[in-house]
Write a structure and sequence with these properties.
Blueprint (H helix, E strand, L loop, with lengths): L1 H4 L3 H20 L4 H18 L2 H8 L3 H22 L9 H30 L2 E7 L7 E5 L5 E4 L2 E6 L11 H11 L6 E5 L6 H10 L1 H5 L1 E4 L1 E6 L6 H13 L5 E7 L7 H5 L7 E7 L8 E4 L5 H12 L10 H10 L4 H11 L4 H14 L6 H12 L5 H9 L9 E2 H11 L7 H12 L4 E4 L11 E4 L2 H12 L8 E6 L20 E6 L17 E6 L3 E2 L13 E6 L5 E3 L13 E5 L1 E2 L15 E5 L15 H4 L5 E5 L19 E5 L19 E3 L21 E3 L21 E3 L21 E4 L1 H11 L6 E4 L15
Parallel strand pairs: 1-6, 1-8, 5-9, 5-10, 8-9, 14-15, 15-16, 16-18, 17-19, 18-20, 19-21, 20-22, 22-23, 23-24, 24-25, 25-26, 26-27, 27-28, 28-29
Antiparallel strand pairs: 1-2, 2-7, 3-4, 4-7, 11-13, 12-13
Helix pairs in contact: 2-3, 2-5, 3-6, 4-6, 5-6, 12-13, 12-14, 13-15, 17-19
């Protein structure tokens, strides 16, 4: 085996087999998808270079024994990956053990990748690095970064060339630097966008790249062309032309052009700088991900250890010992949320101050949770928010995210409900999701998609807002007067309500959005809040029992109610029927709530249009009472969504009275085994989803009565072994989702009567079953799903 390594064939084949195992495992072992995806990317970068193994061996100079050890590790890695692919996704207790092993394997591959890249770069020759700064000022000033002490002549213009100052103690950037180099060294990548919120260290990382030892070893010249004043008569096109000529003059050396701090409004500059020059690459730093320009690398905040180091470097004099209590320091560092700028600003403000000043800062952070006292920090973050001034709705959507607790993932479906009423966005959520994508592109949020749903259902879209950006939104809202604020955020610890709630002449809340968060010690002892204009109420609770506030009855304009229980066990709402007193309520979303028997039938919900229940105990909530039928209690309900119900075994027959229903989604209810035949009474249904109901055994024949049905989703209903003959009666059916269905499912011949069926979305095995029908259904297209799947959804089920 060692002898074969000299030619590289065996080594390349071994990596090829490992890649095949990783790709296979990604399609099966969903719980390890994120790790395997990164590993797949690394392997795809390594293998092309392995083909040039002779060059590699010249640089590595590996003895045969060591190369044999590499082969052995690759083989063990392949066995580990294949073993992981056989683990069922429900066996989640095995994840930590195998995830740790996979991460070790991934680190080994990345280490080997660096060695491979050294070999490749030694062959490719030297690179030239250019950095261009502050290009968002429409090229009135051109800053190009260059290394040498001489002057450079570009078409008659003489400019001094200087070296950027070396960086000191770039804490916490070692891993990002290594990963960024991997992106840049990829032959298939011509442009990399390094993105992060303001104050995270994007420019610092770019400068660190300039002084990296490995980079320098492969550079012929590292230089900075800075502060070059261009005559005002020059047009943008003229400047771009001269820059292109300058870069071409550097050939045949490879060129890396760094464009620092590019804003979305100026992204057209990237098109202008995308010159057709061999061995030419661009690194862009931006607060936005600028997705249309290819590869993107997101820089994350610092971990706790590195955050502490950065803070201490700014807060303590090197030649003096500190008598500041360690716990005080830890709490202050935690309050800076891992942002390097915040850590440095707060550290500098406390440097040399007496212990009492430190303790005051710690108490302020503990009480108010904010560090927004320094102008440098405020201006840095505020500029990202100000950039949304011309997109008012997107900005308001960003501000609304602070309605949910810190460090919690926000379901996109909750935001869709809020924004449909607050800003009159579409009911299906298209505009809401588009706004979230824009905020994500600007690094103002993280948008996690566990799985894209082509049917337009967004229950797998989750939003995370960084703590510091959440504080920015809260601070911005607090600058508005109480009566004129658009949103009011209240956090109650134990039973300590805000002072203004206890005033005799209590001010009236003028905003349309009210959010109230309570903790584990809250006893539901509500104060009276005057909120006549509120249209959306968000209640975040943590107690096992909970009472709705009495002032709900006075909120005549309330249209959306969102109640979320945080923690493992669901909460019981003691006064649930009180919801029936809210006359204009249109949407109810409950998460981790035990709904009492007859909860939705003991009173009338006259204007309720939509119910969403996530991780709720349903019980007899939809059973008719002796005096009120389900159809009378919910006369205008047009949409119901039940996701991850803990106790739903059979769809309540009472729901089949709601003939006005247009959308019915019963998803991820793992105990659901049967649907009542009365489901055929729901003749106005246009969308039906049963995805993820893994025990559902069959679709009743009466489903053929749903003549208006356009979308049917039975993805991952693996126990359904036959579609009913009556499916032929669904003449308006346009989309059928069958991802993850049993490959033994029987498709009846009556399917040929579905003349208007346009799409079947499924995996490869199901696609093969449809092949005999494709030629006879001329409008039909089989779409094989290859979307990425990950475990972002597991936050819902307590993992």
């Amino acid at each position: 085996m060692a002898a074969a390594l000299v030619g590289g064939a065996a080594l390349g084949a071994a990596f090829g087999e490992l890649l095949k195992a990783v790709v296979k495992a990604r399609n099966r072992a969903l719980m390890f998808n994120t790790i395997l995806k990164r590993m797949e990317s690394t392997l795809k970068s390594i293998i092309p270079v392995i083909k040039e193994i002779e060059e590699l061996n010249k640089v590595l100079d590996r003895p045969k024994q060591e190369m044999g050890q590499i082969m052995e590790q690759i083989k063990k890695g392949e066995e580990l990956v294949l073993e992981c692919s056989g683990i069922h996704w429900l066996a989640c207790w095995k994840r930590p053990k195998y995830a740790g092993k996979l991460i070790k394997l991934e680190k080994s591959l990345k280490s080997f990748f660096e060695i491979v890249m050294q070999a490749q770069q030694a062959r490719d020759g030297k690179e030239t690095l250019l950095e261009v700064k502050d290009l968002r000022m429409d090229l009135k000033r051109l800053d190009l970064n260059v290394k040498t002490s001489r002057a450079h002549n570009v078409n008659g213009y003489i400019a001094p060339l200087v070296l950027p100052e070396p960086l000191i103690n770039p804490i916490g950037l070692e891993v990002p630097l290594r990963e960024l180099k991997m992106e840049l060294f990829n032959d298939k990548v011509s442009m990399v966008v390094l993105s992060a919120p303001p104050g995270c260290g994007k420019t610092t990382l770019a400068k660190l790249l300039c002084h990296d030892k490995e980079v320098k070893e492969h550079l012929q010249r590292l230089f900075q062309h800075k502060g070059y004043e261009v005559p005002q008569s020059q047009t943008d096109e003229h400047l771009v032309y001269h820059l292109e000529q300058f870069l071409k003059s550097l050939a045949p050396s490879a060129i890396l052009l760094i464009l620092d701090d590019i804003w979305p409004e100026s992204d057209s500059l990237l098109d202008k700088f995308n010159f057709q020059i061999p061995n030419y690459k661009i690194l862009v730093t931006s607060r936005s991900s600028l997705r249309r320009f290819g590869s993107s690398y997101k820089l994350k905040p610092l971990n706790d250890k590195d955050a502490m180091t950065v803070f201490c470097n700014s807060a303590f004099l090197q030649d003096k010992s500190s008598n500041i209590d360690e716990d005080v320091v830890k709490k202050i560092v935690k309050g800076c949320k891992g942002f390097p700028l915040a850590l440095k600003v707060v550290g500098r403000s406390l440097c040399g101050e007496p212990e009492e000043i430190w303790k005051r800062k710690e108490m302020e952070l503990s009480k108010h949770g904010t560090i927004f006292e320094d102008d440098e920090l405020i201006n840095c973050l505020q500029s990202s928010l100000d950039a949304l001034d011309n997109k008012i709705i997107v900005k308001e959507c960003f501000m609304d995210l602070c309605s949910f607790p810190e460090d919690q993932r926000i379901p996109a479906t909750a935001l869709i409900d809020m924004w449909a009423e607050l800003y009159e966005l579409d009911e299906d959520g298209v505009h809401a999701i588009a706004n979230l994508h824009e905020l994500s592109n600007r690094n103002l949020i993280d948008l996690c998609v566990a799985r894209k749903d082509a049917s337009g259902y967004y229950n797998k879209h989750l939003v995370m807002q960084h703590d510091l950006l959440r504080e920015l939104a809260i601070r911005q809202s607090s600058l508005e007067s109480f009566e004129k604020t658009k949103r009011l955020i209240i956090e109650i610890r134990a039973n300590n309500v805000p002072d203004w709630c206890m005033e005799q002449k209590q001010p009236s809340v003028g905003g349309r959005l009210l959010s109230i968060s309570t903790d584990e010690k809250f006893s539901s002892n509500w104060c009276n809040i005057q909120a006549p204009e509120v249209e959306v109420l968000v209640l975040n609770c943590r107690t096992k029992t909970y009472s709705l506030p009495d002032f709900l009855g006075k909120m005549k304009k309330l249209k959306v109610l969102i109640v979320t229980k945080y923690g493992f066990f669901p909460t019981e709402i003691r006064n649930f029927p009180f919801l029936g007193t809210i006359s204009n309520l249109k949407r109810i979303r409950l998460e981790k709530v035990s709904i009492p028997s007859f909860g939705f039938t003991s009173v009338q919900f006259k204007n309720l249009h939509k119910i969403t229940l996530v991780l709720c105990n349903i019980g007899q909530a939809f059973s008719s009472t002796s005096t009120i039928q389900v159809s009378d209690a919910l006369p205008n309900l047009v949409e119901i969504n039940i996701d991850y119900s803990n106790d739903l075994v059979e769809l309540p027959v009472g729901l089949c009275q709601l003939v006005q229903l247009g959308k019915l989604s019963i998803t991820n209810c793992h105990k659901l085994v049967a649907l009542p035949k009365e489901i055929g009474n729901l003749i106005n249904l246009e969308i039906v989803r049963f995805s993820g109901c893994i025990e559902l055994a069959e679709l009743p024949s009466t489903i053929g009565s749903l003549h208006k049905l356009k979308i049917l989703d039975i993805s991952e209903c693996s126990e359904i072994r036959k579609l009913p003959e009556q499916i032929r009666d669904l003449q308006n059916l346009r989309k059928l989702h069958m991802i993850g269905c049993s490959n033994k499912i029987e498709l009846p011949p009556s399917i040929l009567e579905l003349e208007h069926l346009k799409e079947v979305i499924c995996d490869e095995e199901i696609a093969n079953l449809w092949e005999p029908f494709v030629d006879q259904l001329e409008n039909l297209e089989i779409k094989v799903d290859k979307e990425d799947i990950n475990l972002n959804w597991l936050y819902n089920v307590g993992f």
